[in-house]
């Protein structure tokens, strides 16, 4: 599925309560598009439990071991996910997930602090970390810009 179709699916699946579809279309989707366009894959393999929950991996800063964060790993290939998973839960499985949905889940999933994207097939060490805080800040900034442009538009445009 191409990126635009993925983003449209997020808009279509947004709760139809009040302004939520508009918020997703005008604030969330532009940010997800900008980030996804910088990534190499249009789908990633995510390790999941048998019941479909995404697996989180604890990351520790070697300089500050008391600081731990929870990350979702997004693999370029099924083989990479299987190699990584070899040391994890043997009951886990790798499932393909569209890139827009990976990014949206990072935004929506409070338990995750970041997504580590492993874009290069065959490499389990060269990842890009996308922090949840940063994604949320970008979406909030986009939402404020959208609200500002709506307030400045003349009311008699039609």
Short structural summary:
With 158 residues, the protein is α+β, with helices and mostly antiparallel strands. It is built from five helices and six strands. 42% of the residues lie in helices and 24% in strands.
Characterization of this structure:
- The chain is an alpha+beta fold.
- It is built from five helices and six strands.
- It has helices at 3-13, 20-36, 78-85, 99-108, 132-152, and strands at residues 43-48, 57-61, 64-75, 93-98, 114-118, 128-131.
- The radius of gyration is 18 Å and the shape is globular.
- The termini are far apart.
Topology:
Elements (H helix, E strand, L loop, with lengths): L2 H11 L6 H17 L6 E6 L8 E5 L2 E12 L2 H8 L7 E6 H10 L5 E5 L9 E4 H21 L6
Parallel strand pairs: 3-5
Antiparallel strand pairs: 1-3, 1-4, 2-3, 5-6
Helix pairs in contact: 1-2, 1-4, 2-4, 2-5
């Amino acid at each position: 599925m191409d990126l635009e179709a993925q983003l449209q699916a997020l808009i279509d699946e947004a709760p139809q309560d009040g302004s939520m579809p508009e918020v997703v279309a005008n604030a969330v989707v532009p940010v997800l598009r900008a980030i996804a366009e910088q990534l190499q894959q249009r789908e990633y393999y995510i390790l999941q439990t048998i019941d479909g929950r995404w697996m989180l991996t604890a990351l520790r800063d070697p300089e500050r071991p008391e600081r731990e964060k929870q990350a979702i790993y997004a693999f370029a290939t099924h083989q990479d996910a299987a190699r990584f998973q070899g040391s994890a839960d043997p009951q886990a499985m790798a499932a393909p997930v569209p890139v827009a949905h990976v990014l949206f889940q990072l935004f929506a999933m409070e338990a995750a602090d970041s997504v580590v994207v492993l874009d290069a097939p065959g490499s389990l060490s060269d990842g890009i970390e996308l922090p949840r805080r940063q994604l949320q800040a970008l979406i909030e900034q986009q939402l404020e810009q959208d609200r500002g442009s709506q307030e400045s538009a003349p009311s008699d445009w039609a």
